[in-house]
Amino acid sequence: MSKVLMKGNEAIGAAAIKAGCKAFFGYPITPQNEIPEYMSREMAKSGGVFVQAESEVAAINMVYGAAGAGVRVMTSSSSPGIALKQEGITYIAGAELPCVIVDVSRGGPGLGSIQPSQGDYFIATRGGGNGDYRHIALAPASIQEAVDLVTEAFDIADYYRNPVFVLADGMIGQMMEPVEFRDMPSRELPEKTWATDGTKNSRKPNIINSLALDPAVLEEHNIKLDKKYQQMEKNEVRVEVFNMEEAEVVLTAYGTTARVAKNAIELLEAEGIKAGLIRPITLWPFPHQAFREIPGTAKAILTVEMSMGQMIDDVKIANEGRLPVHFYGRSGGMCPEPQAIVDKVKEILGGVK
Amino acid sequence: MATERIIMAGFGGQGVMSMGQLLTYAGMIENKQVSWLPAYGPEMRGGTANCSVIVSDSLVGSPIITQDATCAIVMNLPSMLKFEQNLVPGGKLIINTSLVDREPSRDDIEVYKLPANAIADQVGNPRVANMVMLGAYLALTGLVSTDSVVEAFKKVYGAGKEHFIPMNQQALAEGAKAVLEVQ
Amino acid sequence: MATPVFEKTKGLTDKQFHYCPGCTHGIIHRLVAEVLEELGVTGETIGVAPVGCSVLAYDYFNCDMHEAAHGRAPAVATGIKRVRPDNTVFTYQGDGDLAAIGTAEIVHVALRAEKITTIFVNNAIYGMTGGQMAPTTLIGQKATTSPYGRSEADTGKPLRVCEMLATIDGAVFVERVSVHDVPHIRKAKKAIKKAFEVQLRGEGFALVEVLSTCPTNWGITPVDSLAWLKDNMLPYFPLGNFRTPEEGK
């Protein structure tokens, strides 16, 4: 199939429909508005459902209902709206339902700004909902990758019966790049025998539920969930490792910031400084192994984020104390500039030599 | 060409965003690596508009243009005052003199001037001023062919708008002529 | 051979109710289940349980069930009904769930005219959490968070849900009933049946508010509770139909 030039938000919507998404529930918030707008236009054409809910809280609970009824369903929002959705997300995780949640993130805290930010790393990887739950968090760095990951996200969600979170910053949502809608590797998926589609008086009722008043029963459920999460950690890690051979400094960044980091690596190369990049594509599970494989030439790690430092916690965990971990970040809708990263790298190398 | 980083700016309604999209799409048609990044948010409603277009032979890294713009196409005065600063030394500043009556402050850049609105009026529609500016840019850089821009026009606007193509082609040509004549 | 004179509805499972002695949730469950059975839709029905005393309703109804977050049952039901338009979908909610934390959801399910049925059980108190004041608690009524009796000055007057929802065009059937005696129980069942028939005909949103008792948290006997409902709740929450589909035409 040929390439088309698409805005990130619309491409995400198109990818979802192509992946068999049959229901979308959302609420307006910048900078993700083109997703619900696209879905309101295109869902009707593809025999799907679109509802503009009264709030993000209602939207995620509509997702909860539709997911329980056994169809592929998605919602999208931006940071403050994602905060509101946390209630529904923990219920969905607890009830083991598949769905896709897209966060086109913006600056915070509070109402923050509408410009791109990576301040939602914690909410994407730790979750803002209550209880022991996890979900995969995918972080695309281009429109093409957003399309590919959203397409796969539905399969991943169905495979594990678990919500899948896509963290795309406002830049990914708003920019246009060429994309190709290609077939992604699909998985063998079990039939949704658990879905609420009516007993037809021929089977026992299916119950979608996250309540277990008996502590022993809930603990058993927690252990079962944990085993599932361990499977995800084992099987679903995705990472791009770039220019790592002989690297003196290892940059680590995700999403749009990783692209800025690559520009910085080029500039450093021109100055004879060898820098590599670890770009987590899954923020959870985090690519710990990539950090174990950092070559012996490396003297330090520099974490670059569009935040005041969130992923750096995971970097420190993955680094296991081997190398000094530095940080450079911009926030509030300001983006790191390649030259500033270059300067920071030089400062670090000056310090470690 | 290595990498062209173009800032296009003006006020809402001047077709700045679509000019950027056409160039981006044309780059894609010619198998170049491209990105288009809009400024979005309140400024969208406040009347000014700008977008960043990158066209490159190699993969586009950051879609953001900072102090490394190779060209700024400014359709009005506030845009010139704001984006002149983003040009690299030797970068191109293309000014719509129909709406900009001041000189740029920098002397280390290449400055090109043309009255895009007046030319658009002559072509027959004030709304093609953006294409006049784009024509000037293409004449200076040869980044993509005008054929590719026309091809992009068809993709972006669809069959229903194809009757506008001749006028847009003329605007591209007049922009090219104007900018080359001046130099 | 003995002829059965009474059979429990197949709309309920064999699970024993956990409700307190004298609580009228059991009666209301049975009415809903009987209606589903009589309409022949049990096998096509998906029920949405709330948070509150009836949180475990998913164990009692003999149809597919979905346990919602507090107040969100109408949103969950919307999600289900939109993707399963041929199924019958109902929510079963208490007064804290529907009239406090879930006010946005109930108003918007009505204004979208979602083709679902809501059974709203109003017993003027939070039962599950131990007798706190509800939006429907009467003025002067004591609750664990209104120990001196509900004060209008501090908390306003009780919310009349039917009257509020009847102002919304999408709520095509709205009726308040009670279960404090047998004639009223019969009327309640009729209303519940109509509310499901409205859904089956695809006419819009239907809600039945059922005035109910809470002997445990009211601190009186089951028998006295029925009398208290009649004497105190009926004057403030008048019974009757607020909207029917015909009215809208």
TrEMBL record, chain A:
Signal peptide: none annotated. Residues 15-234 form the Pyruvate flavodoxin/ferredoxin oxidoreductase pyrimidine binding domain. GO terms for molecular function: oxidoreductase activity. SUPFAM superfamilies: Thiamin diphosphate-binding fold (THDP-binding) (SSF52518), TK C-terminal domain-like (SSF52922). Keywords: Oxidoreductase. Residues 247-340 form the Pyruvate:ferredoxin oxidoreductase core domain. InterPro entries: 2-oxoacid_oxidoreductase, PFOR_II, Pyrv_Fd/Flavodoxin_OxRdtase_N, THDP-binding, Transketo_C/PFOR_II. The keyword Oxidoreductase applies. Pfam families: PFOR_II, POR_N. This is 2-oxoglutarate ferredoxin oxidoreductase subunit alpha. It comes from Anoxynatronum buryatiense.
TrEMBL record, chain B:
Keywords: Oxidoreductase. This is 2-oxoglutarate ferredoxin oxidoreductase subunit gamma. The keyword Lipid metabolism does not apply. GO terms for molecular function: oxidoreductase activity, acting on the aldehyde or oxo group of donors. It comes from Anoxynatronum buryatiense. Residues 12-176 form the Pyruvate/ketoisovalerate oxidoreductase catalytic domain.
From TrEMBL, chain C:
The keyword Transferase does not apply. SUPFAM superfamilies: Thiamin diphosphate-binding fold (THDP-binding). It comes from the Bacteria. GO terms for molecular function: oxidoreductase activity, acting on the aldehyde or oxo group of donors, iron-sulfur protein as acceptor; thiamine pyrophosphate binding. Residues 59-210 form the Thiamine pyrophosphate enzyme TPP-binding domain. The keyword Oxidoreductase applies. GO terms for biological process: cellular respiration. Keywords: Oxidoreductase. InterPro entries: 2-oxoacid:Fd_oxidoreductase (IPR051457), THDP-binding (IPR029061), TPP_enzyme_TPP-bd (IPR011766). This is 2-oxoglutarate ferredoxin oxidoreductase subunit beta.
